[in-house]
Specification:
A hairpin with a 2-residue loop joins strand 12 (267-273) and strand 13 (276-282). This protein is 33% helix and 21% strand. The chain has helices spanning 22-32, 47-57, 73-83, 97-102, 115-132, 183-188, 201-209, 229-240, 294-305, 322-330, 348-354, 364-377, and strands at residues 13-18, 38-44, 61-65, 88-92, 107-110, 149-151, 154-156, 192-197, 219-223, 244-247, 258-261, 267-273, 276-282, 309-313, 334-338, 360-362. The protein has a seven-stranded parallel sheet, sandwiched between helices. A five-stranded parallel sheet has the order 2-1-3-4-5, sandwiched between helices. Helix 10 packs across helix 11. The protein has twelve helices and 16 strands. It is α/β, with parallel strands linked by helices.
């Protein structure tokens, strides 16, 4: 009589190795190949190659060197964890464990210097990968230096003095059933929501969009972010929001229940034809210092949707979006500026307020609820 066997197979953990040393990547790959629960799905020599491989391969765990050309591992990890949380083990030839954990790493390993160290390193690496996969990824616990702004995803220090930074996610103030009662009709009537943000905007937008129900009028978003990261960010948002969130592609239709996020390096403009709203995406010169530009998007919404639009300009340094929001306001749209107290950087909303572009100012936790209520009640 045949003995029953358990044919259930445990999925292997997909690992991406990132190190500018081909020799060291090969050493790690050979050592980890012996681990039955691990699969090396790819390798990368720098952060820019890594972000493409992350998008393509969707690894479960990232193993990355801190010292690399083009962008160091700490800087890349901080950007990655804010937009696409992923368990990561950072490695380095010097003890940088404190900086690694602060940047959001699940663990840290010191690179080996002797053959004996090499063996211990490879043994510990396999164990740490398995443990890291069970941990919930988290963003960096430290804020960027005072005065730093995210420009196309890279932290730079602006001229003109420091800014105030705040840390932490803000839970949304969810709208009531009454405040959502008329949203499905508004979507059918051609109403649209436009959102713009920059520094601190990834968390701010999540707070706002999480408040939107599945029958929400269409939403168009510009968040200053480099190429590829907008794709990763959209995918993450789609998993945690009720509305369907995706990176905008040229010609995508804007229909109720859909939120499109402008792709990094592409302007996004609202257009309309006999079938309704759609988005035009194109590469072009920076406007107000950015591509995609909030001003470009808001201006197109003002022209195409007029008073059937509601816009919100949120945290970010500079003035992108202020003039566009003013155009929306002048065309009869309802416009919201995030208030100073809840902004990571009170720059873009402040410039809009100074221009008289804001119908009202609201704290971050209330913006989503306010949008739903205004769409239901009118303005």
């Amino acid at each position: 009589m045949a003995v029953p066997t358990n044919t259930t197979t445990i999925p292997k953990l997909k690992v991406l190795l990132v190190d500018d040393s081909t020799m060291f990547r090969t050493s790690m790959k050979l050592a980890l190949a012996a681990k039955p629960n691990l699969e090396i799905v790819g390798e990368a020599a720098d952060a820019f190659e890594a972000r493409d491989k992350i998008r393509e391969l969707k690894p479960d765990v990232l193993v990355m060197d801190i010292v690399m050309p083009k962008m160091d591992g700490l800087t890349f990890l901080k950007q990655l964890m804010a937009q696409y949380p992923l368990p990561c083990i950072l490695i380095s030839g010097t003890d940088s464990s404190g900086e690694a954990i602060a940047a959001g790493a699940a663990d840290f390993l010191l690179k080996p210097k002797t053959p004996a160290d090499q063996q211990r390193f490879m043994t510990m690496l396999g164990t740490k990968i398995s443990i890291a996969a069970t941990k919930k990824p988290r963003a960096a616990v430290t804020s960027r230096p005072a005065g730093a702004e995210e420009v196309d995803g890279l932290a730079v220090t602006p001229v003109g003095g420091p800014v105030t930074a705040r840390i932490g996610r803000v839970p949304p103030n969810m709208p009531t059933r009454e405040e959502m009662s008329g949203l499905s009709l508004r979507g059918k009537d051609g109403y649209i929501v436009a959102l713009g943000a920059s520094t601190g905007g990834t968390d701010a937008l999540e707070c706002v969009i999480k408040a939107f129900p599945e029958f929400m009028p269409p939403v168009l978003v510009v968040q200053h972010m480099p190429p590829v990261f907008t794709k990763l960010y959209s995918e993450r948002m789609d998993k945690c929001c009720t509305v369907h969130v995706k990176e905008a592609a040229d010609g995508d239709r804007l229909v109720p229940g859909v939120c499109l996020i402008a792709a990094g390096g592409y302007h996004a403009e609202l257009k309309k034809d006999a079938r309704g709203y759609y988005v035009k995406c194109y590469q072009g010169e920076k406007v107000s210092g950015h591509c995609p530009s909030v001003d470009v998007m808001f201006s197109s919404v003002a022209e195409v949707a007029g008073k059937r639009a509601i816009g919100a300009l949120m945290t970010g340094m500079g003035a992108d979006g202020a003039k566009g929001l003013l155009k929306m306001h002048q065309r009869g749209a309802h416009t919201i500026g995030q208030d100073k107290e809840s902004c990571i950087v009170y720059g873009m909303p402040m410039e809009a307020y100074k221009l008289g572009a804001c119908s009202e100012q609201q704290s971050l936790c209330n913006i989503g609820k306010t949008i739903c209520k205004r769409l239901t009640d009118g303005w």
